[in-house]
Structure formats: structure tokens, C-alpha cells
Specification:
The chain has 289 residues and is of the alpha/beta class. It has a domain at 57-176: L,D-transpeptidase catalytic domain-like (Beta Barrel). It is built from three helices and 17 strands. It is globular, with a radius of gyration of 21 Å.
Amino acid sequence: MVRAVFSCCVAWLLASLPFEDIGGTTRQSWSPSAGVVPTSFLRFFPMRDTIYTLTPWYLELDLQRQRLYLVGRNGERREYKVSSGAPWVAGGIETPTGLFTLQTKATLAISRQFDNTRMLYWMGFSGNVGFHALEGWGYYRHLGHRASSHGCVRLSREDAHFLYRLLPRGTPVLVYKEEPARILAFLHPEEFLPGRDWLLSSGGYAQEQLLRKRLEVLYLGKTQELLPRRLVLDGNTILQPGGYPVGAVREIPLQQPPLLLPASTHFLSVLPLAVDGHDTAVLPDSLLP
């Protein structure tokens, strides 16, 4: 029954996509009962490496658009204007990209490096780089328009106060300048499978190599070689300063090897896929990177 429903969903999704072959004008056909999605169809499914979180919220920071997004497990998505690090400012650096977690919090932090600047509602995510507000109003004109800080991410006092009260340490933070190859997704705590899913720790060589390898395999178009396990942030883990790379979706081949639909009807979870910029497709658990 589940297999039939899944096949119908895939068939509907594929039917809504332009299946015209790259080299010609002949439309191809596909039957869900065949169990194989032709390779030529899969150019519409650039897969991305998914890190799952058990937290109620996570943050996405788009440096290109100077926007911070608060994403909720309930489907809520809020947008905030920011001003990130500017390397052209004296002593400034560009805000680093990567996968992080909120590491430190303080209602007031003092920057000894920059004239004892008072940073309000400090939420650090990579050592001395973090979110904060400032006193005064002058910096408000840059929010949402241009990078202007020495490396941190500035918010309005109203937004910084709200986020400070809402988000605990351990909340995941995804920072990118272009569409990332690594994304975040929610996992319900009751769906977490000890022994199968892997809880990420604060760091370590083995974890660093695993996350690096996952991106390398993704870029080679060999996602089927990855072990069928989910990497999970539980909300208690504080990732080491520097975080982990998020890559770039432009490096992922548009065409993946044939997708085999398993005979089993037991699908444990889903893998978000980018279809015209939206994570809308559902694939069997055996292909989870």
C-alpha cells in the first residue's frame, strides 16, 4: 500500500516536470511499476546533503541578500534584515560561511578589539563571530542593504532581543553566500533511530572527514555510495568554532545515477531535493546521504 502511494506521488511529481530530453524534442515516458527512474529524468533532481535537527528552530543567513531567516518546525519562516562582515572595513573580515550552532549568549558583550564596543544580545556562533545589536541608530541604515561590520552580523535591537529570548545555545546556524550544497531539515525526536542515525558531536577528526567526504561524493554524482544514515544535531551539541563547510549547489551534477526503488514498503524518512529551487520531492530512505 505504502509503495503504491509513494509510486503515485513520484509519478505525479515527474508528470509535472518538463521531461523533454536535452538532445531532442521527444518526450519520454515512465511507469512507476518499473521501479527505476530513467537517468535522463534525474537531471531535474540535484540532491543535497541534509543535516537533520531535533530543535524547534534553526537559522539561515544569506550573506548575498543580507537576510537572516528563522525557520520553525511548525512551518513558520521569518525574515530579518542584517548587516554582516565587510572585509573593506578597517580590521574587518567577511562573515564566514558554514554550518554552525549558537555557542555563547550574553545580554551584553564588550569588544576589546574594537574600542570596547558594546554588543547587545550577543549570540556567538563561531568564536568571536556572532549576532548582536548596537547602541544608537546609525547602523540601522545598512541593515538589509550592505555589509558594514567587522565580521559579526548586526541586527536591529528589536530583532536581536526577540531572537535572543527565543533561541537557546545549540540552535543550528547555516551561513551561505550562494545556494549551499548542504542544508538543514527537521527530524521529529520520535523518528530518531539510535544505532542507525548519527548524532553529531562538537567536533573531531573523524567527523570532519565524514562531512568532507559527503560533499566530495555529492560533487562526483555518486550519492548512492553514501551510507544510509542521517546525521543529526540534537540541540545540545555545540559545534566547534569554524563549523563545517556547506559547499555550493552549483558543484553538484544535474544528473545522478539511476534511482532504484526498493521492494520494501518501509520508508523511514525523506530526503529534501532541489526541484526548481524548492525542496519538494520525496525519495526512499535507502538513498539518504
